[in-house]
Specification:
Strand 1 and strand 2 form a beta hairpin. Helix content is 26%, strand content 29%. The protein has a four-stranded mixed β-sheet, with helices on one face. The protein contains two helices and four strands; from the N terminus they run βββαβα. It has one domain: Aminopeptidase (3-Layer(aba) Sandwich). By secondary structure, it is of the alpha+beta class.
Length: 91
């Protein structure tokens, strides 16, 4: 999903994947010069609305723990940490 202004400039984008009653939110990004203006929240709310209209009862997302701005945004929208992922690389 793209969030654009009236001129067509992309402000934020993200992916919502519906799987049964679950909506997964992925790759939520706000263009750097438009951050902290509510566009990320608006995009997520639009995705959640779309998901609900299409049968989603629950939503989840993944975020890197060092991404403090994203963590703050997701917390404001009611998301909370349930578990952690560990990424492993082969040596």
């Amino acid at each position: 999903m793209l969030l654009t202004d009236k001129s067509g400039t992309v402000l934020a984008c993200g992916l919502g994947v519906l799987e049964g009653e679950y909506l997964g939110l992925f790759n939520i990004v706000t263009q750097e010069k438009f951050r902290n203006q509510g566009y990320g929240a608006k995009l997520i709310k639009n995705l959640l609305h779309w998901g609900k209209e299409n049968g989603a009862k629950y939503a989840y997302l993944q975020v890197i723990l060092s991404n403090a701005p994203a963590l703050n945004l997701y917390a404001k929208l009611g998301f909370e940490e349930k578990y952690k992922y560990w990424y492993r690389i082969k040596n």
